[in-house]
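tool_call: predict_structure(chain=1)
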Amino acid sequence: MQDDTSNAVAILSSGQSLKIYGVTLYPTEAIAVISGLRSEAASKMGGVSTGIGFIGSPTWAIGAGAALGFLESVASDAARKNGLKMFAEADRQTDALLAQGLLFRMKDVTNSDRPLPASWSSTALVDDLQTIAPLSLKQQADVLSQNGLTRAELVDGHLMPIKRQRLYSHNGDEFLAVDTEFGLINIRWSSVVGYIGPNRNSPPPLPR
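tool_result:
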């Protein structure tokens, strides 16, 4: 049995309560790239309304690829057509992002004591590649030796496998993929009316 103090509890508007053991978070750097693409695309498209809100407004959320057909009909100049391409690229990267999510235990999520998923984050050790092409042959040999690698282990002759800490956070979607006593489910966070975070301590002292 899991320690209740290491889990969160969400109370839904229906009155049901859910024990949340973990939450799916996504690579923060990838989220930032997608956000930048959408922001730049929105500025190129101007004040176009898609039926799900003006582009760039809070209602224009991740997964708005369904509106791309409408956008094609209003992309009358080069800037807007460029913006449309950027939206399509952001949508493609969003699909790729969903496959990169990791499930983190609530007790390991920073700020999970607060009912604000946008502030939640955690880190994980991941495999990555680092180029050593700019280094001299001697420097390359030194770096490989320091990391216990041989030149035969390089990818494409210049990419060195490394381990590094990657930051993960909430992707901004209105639904959160969480691990509960019922298994993995997606909950709409706007339906949460009460929240008890993990690692809860004693309440603050009363005023004197």
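agent: The beta strands are 8-12, 17-27, 102-105, 121-131, 159-169, 175-180, 183-188, 192-196. Proceeding to next step.
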